[in-house]
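Entry 12.
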Amino acid sequence: MTLAIESLDKLLTPQGVVPQQGAVWLVGAGPGDVELLTVKALRLLHCAEVVVYDRLVSEAVMAEVPESALCIDVGKQPGQHGLKQAQINQLLIDLACSGRDVIRLKGGDPFIFGRGGEEMVSLQQAGIRCEVVPGITAAVGCAAASGIPLTHRDCAQSLRLITGHGRSGEPQLDAAAVAAGNQTLVFYMGLSWSASISAQLQAQGRDAETPVAIIENGTRPDQRVLITTLAGLAQTVAQEKPVSPSLLLVGEVVRYYRADLQVGALARVAAC
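Predicted 3D structure (tokens):
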């Protein structure tokens, strides 16, 4: 059962009986492919009582939730946040205080640009039991689904995961951190600021011909990969119009991209 936020007041209104306090699990749903869920995450979903989920959680993953579970969508559209983070934190506290065990389901991994740390701290301060179940983050899942090694001894000795959306919008990249050519950069939530990211990286010393992969809906059946360069990134985004969720992967490792690798192409082999 999916519940609108407006209907929560009645649900959380005390009925005269003080309930036993519930608990919250911060669960990583991975980048979309349901088979990339951890065994623990799948077990928790199968016995879920309440699921508070994000927009980036795929339909395939949500299909694993029992029909009897209460599902609350707190997804944030780019530039359109239905609930502010503080309200989501309070919602989790209120649900647990009403005696419910809650699965807080987040795309990717809760602790990698998922704001799981903020939710964990709020729950701990409220005295709510909280456990974190990690998930496969988008960088790992999307790169694997595209045949791109995030590190390769010939061209990438380090990896940086970077938010493509700063507190005030446009990201401000640390020149000392991103200028080295022998590392892979992965930008989360970077589509809107792709032109700025490209310009900043080039100004900080990255070659204009550095390859870039835009991975849209990574690991999902509708995955799309666009290969370009730093110099051509803004134009590619303008022409091809990739949609969220999309990841920007920058570095020489992009040259290993396998266009023949299709999501699920080896499924029948793996099933044998």
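Annotation: Residues 103 and 237 are 35 Å apart (CA to CA). Residues 266-270 have pLDDT under 50 and may be disordered.
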